[in-house]
């Protein structure tokens, strides 16, 4: 080993106090070779990874546990069937920590649920599944009788004749599909090329619209859905009101408003000229105040005239 850590990880590290008389490293450390998996080895229990052989219903919370789900199960021997051992697997479900016990059945070559769960029964019709029904155990035992086997053989021949047209048709379909591999490959590649070209065009169209996603082509269903969409009545009402205001307004500018603006500009020019003359010293403050008072009086008179 290159490093001490690697040697310890592989259990090849022998400490200085170890001597060959003390036996193996596991005996020296006082532990089993399987470590935590063998913590109950004195009771005949070994922890293994058990895979569920079929779908079951949990007895604690009634949830389904699928086939192939793995558990840390305690494996121990509970009996014998002739010379074959019967094993028991005890595990806890992940959903509610319910204890499930499953035994092997060497007689019927299957697993049996003892407690904590219930096997999910999955029945199907032979015709719907398009399969053949296997003979029962009793019927398989009767096949040892020559007369029964002869009758059974005649029934099988009749079933074969009835199913022959279907089998021939299926064989013809299979032959037509796989007869010319070159043409099939060519058709598949051309379809893929057209699909890639369509994807590039859709991405380019989305990029022109400023979208980061690819838009699918339009369909009749999308058009019908878009036609069924109706905007709220408030939007339609506000739109109609705005159009009515625009149509009712005059196309010429308001004369009164323009005249007011002109008068305001004239007043500002007069005030600016008086201020410049005052700063230059050509006009006395008394005269400036008098002019301001006269302008205020004229402004008030114009306002009263307007009110009248």
UniProtKB/TrEMBL annotation:
<feature type="region of interest" description="Disordered">
    <location>
        <begin position="286"/>
        <end position="308"/>
    </location>
</feature>
<dbReference type="InterPro" id="IPR007590">
    <property type="entry name" value="Saf4/Yju2"/>
</dbReference>
<protein>
    <recommendedName>
        <fullName>Coiled-coil domain-containing protein 130</fullName>
    </recommendedName>
</protein>
<dbReference type="Pfam" id="PF04502">
    <property type="entry name" value="Saf4_Yju2"/>
</dbReference>
<dbReference type="GO" id="GO:0005684">
    <property type="term" value="C:U2-type spliceosomal complex"/>
</dbReference>
<dbReference type="GO" id="GO:0000398">
    <property type="term" value="P:mRNA splicing, via spliceosome"/>
</dbReference>
<comment type="similarity">
    <text>Belongs to the CWC16 family.</text>
</comment>
<feature type="compositionally biased region" description="Polar residues">
    <location>
        <begin position="287"/>
        <end position="308"/>
    </location>
</feature>
<dbReference type="GO" id="GO:0071014">
    <property type="term" value="C:post-mRNA release spliceosomal complex"/>
</dbReference>
């Amino acid at each position: 080993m290159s490093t001490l850590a690697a040697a310890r990880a592989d259990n090849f590290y022998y400490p200085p106090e170890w001597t060959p008389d003390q036996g193996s490293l596991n005996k020296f450390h006082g532990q089993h070779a399987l470590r935590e998996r063998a913590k109950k080895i004195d009771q005949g229990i070994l922890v293994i990874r058990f895979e569920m052989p079929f779908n079951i219903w949990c007895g604690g919370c009634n949830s389904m546990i699928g086939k192939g789900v793995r558990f840390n199960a305690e494996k121990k021997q509970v009996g014998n069937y002739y010379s074959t051992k019967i094993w028991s697997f005890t595990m806890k479900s992940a959903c509610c920590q319910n204890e499930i016990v499953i035994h092997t059945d060497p007689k019927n070559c299957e697993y049996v649920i003892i407690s904590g769960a219930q096997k999910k029964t999955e029945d199907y019709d032979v015709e719907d599944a398009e399969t053949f029904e296997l003979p029962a155990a009793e019927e398989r035992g009767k096949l040892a009788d020559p007369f029964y086997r002869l009758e059974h053989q005649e029934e099988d021949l009749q079933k074969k004749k009835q199913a022959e047209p279907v089998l021939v048709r299926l064989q013809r379909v299979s032959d037509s599909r796989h007869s010319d591999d070159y043409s099939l490959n060519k058709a598949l590649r051309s379809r893929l090329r057209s699909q890639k070209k369509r994807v590039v065009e859709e991405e380019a169209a989305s990029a022109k619209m400023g979208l980061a996603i690819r838009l699918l082509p339009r369909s009749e269903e999308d058009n019908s859905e878009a036609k069924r969409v109706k905007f709220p009545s408030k939007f339609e009402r506000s739109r109609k009101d705005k159009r009515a205001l625009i149509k009712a307004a005059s196309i010429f500018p308001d004369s009164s408003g323009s005249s007011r603006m002109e008068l305001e500009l004239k007043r500002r020019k007069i005030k600016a000229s008086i201020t410049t003359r005052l700063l230059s010293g050509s006009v006395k403050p008394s005269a400036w105040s008098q002019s301001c008072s006269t302008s205020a009086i004229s402004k008030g008179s114009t306002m009263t005239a307007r009110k009248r």
